[in-house]
Amino acid sequence: MEKELEQLNAIYQAITEFFINYSFQLVGALIILVLGIWLGNRLGNLILRLCERSNLDITLSKFLANVAKFLFIAVMAIIALGKIGVSIGPFVAALGAVSLGAGLALQSPLSNYGAGLNLVLTRPFIVGDTISVQGVTGIVEEICLAYTLLTDEDGVKILIPNKHIIGEVIHNSRGNTLIELEVGISYHSDPNKAIERISQAIEQAKLTGNDMPAQIGIDSFGDSNINIAVRLWAPTDRHFHIRYRANTLVYQALKDANIEIAFPQREVRMLDGSNDSV
Predict the structure, then answer these.
(1) pLDDT in tens, 101-136
(2) The pTM is what?
(3) Interior/surface letters 152-167, b for 16+ CB within 10 angstroms, e for the rest
């Protein structure tokens, strides 16, 4: 019991002596740290505003602002530690070792951040574009340093790690998606008349913008039909709505024009077997 009391007393004496000897240094270090946090936040906000005025990408702007803020606060924290007599040499060495180990352990996540920074700098697509990558198509909703967030017409969120985007073939159709339709008409129907009626129906329905008119024409010739192809661009968030509407318009236009929609046919001829020789 006496030994425990002696240990407690020694600890108390050491703490008391520390505060007596370093009281002013502690106050100064605390002031430096608080001032550093305040100035760091101000610096980050200032850099963010400057980037926004320069119309810099919002993701890159936030990244630069956060890096500047945390670096400034880290420098002020090191100065505060030195103020109370803490040697920062071993601390920096230990921090370097920890950083090396963390870098090896987080190699895959860090590659996402590197790829995200590449996306922000090169800007192969921006928020609002429609992209297809890794077999996935959607509207770009957010570009983060670690991942890119897409959304489709059904409102499904699709999160793609950025390392799976860099180095891949990216299809960027901006805000639209191409709709391709095909209908077969019989050979005794007039294809020019069919193309004219389909064009009128789609134009009157205003399914596409004036800058991107629909493309309609003869695509191929089948065994029992002439294939009419329809290509039109539609906003990605209304892709299926416009696709179904266009199919209905094509069917109704051909029906109103009495143009027969072809179906597979086969002609069978019966030969008289009485003339066959045995």
Answers:
(1) 545 444 566 788 788 888 877 888 888 899 999 888
(2) 0.60
(3) bbeeeebebbbbebbe
DSSP codes, 49-61:
HHHHHTT--HHHH
Neighbouring C-alpha atoms within 13 Å toward the C-beta of 175:
8
> Token match 């391709």: residue?
180
Q: What angle do CA 73, 114, 89 make, to 5 degrees?
A: 40
| pLDDT tens profile 149-196 | 999 888 889 999 998 898 888 999 888 888 999 999 999 899 999 999
> φ, ψ for residue 208 (rounded to 5)?
-125, 160
d(C-alpha 39, C-alpha 42), whole Å: 5
DSSP 75-143: HHHHHHHHHTT--HHHHHHHHHHHHHHHHHHTHHHHHHHHHHHHHHHH-SS-TT-EEEETTEEEEEEEE
Collapsing DSSP states into helix, strand and coil, what is residue 218?
strand
Cβ 60 vs Cβ 120: under 8 Å: yes
Question: What is the third-level CATH fold of 15-105?
Answer: Helix Hairpins (1.10.287)
Check whether domain 124-172 has CATH 3.40.50.2000, yes or no = no
**How many Cα neighbours within 13 Å face the side chain of 274?**
1
The maximal CA–CA distance of the chain, rounded, in angstroms, is 131
Yes or no: is domain 176-256 CATH 3.30.70.100?
yes
